[in-house]
Every structure is written in C-alpha cells, then in structure tokens.
Amino acid sequence: MSYCFCIVVFLLLLTAELTLAGPPLLADDTDTPGDKHWEINAAFTIEKRQTELTYEAPILDINYGIGVI
Q1: In 1-69, at which residue ranges do the beta strands (DSSP E only) sit?
Q2: pLDDT of residue 47
Q3: Per-residue pLDDT at 18 exceeds 60
C-alpha cells in the first residue's frame, strides 16, 4: 500500500514541476497603505439589461497597514 502511495506522490510532483504560469496580472490596484495607515475604498455598481436592473452597494475594501513599509 505504501509503495503505491509513494509512486502516486512522485508522479504528482513530476506533473506539478511541468506546469507553467501565465503572464503577470496587470491591475489598477494601488500600493499597500503603509505602516499604521488606513486605506478605504468604496464602490457602487449598476448593471442594466433590457428587462432588469441590478445594484450592488456598498462594496467596501478596508485595509490597515502593519509593518515598516
């Protein structure tokens, strides 16, 4: 039983080594807020279709910086 388990783990490690990542994600995100600083982002979205209207509010992203940056 343990012999089969070792083979499966070995094969999984081989396939994990062969995977490739895509290009870096380019985002419009700001940098970290810095040590002892707050960053609060609020958003409101509206999605309009022919027969319906969808609202999302509030969308909040609140961050507090911890560290020496």
Answers
A1: 38-48, 53-64
A2: 92
A3: no
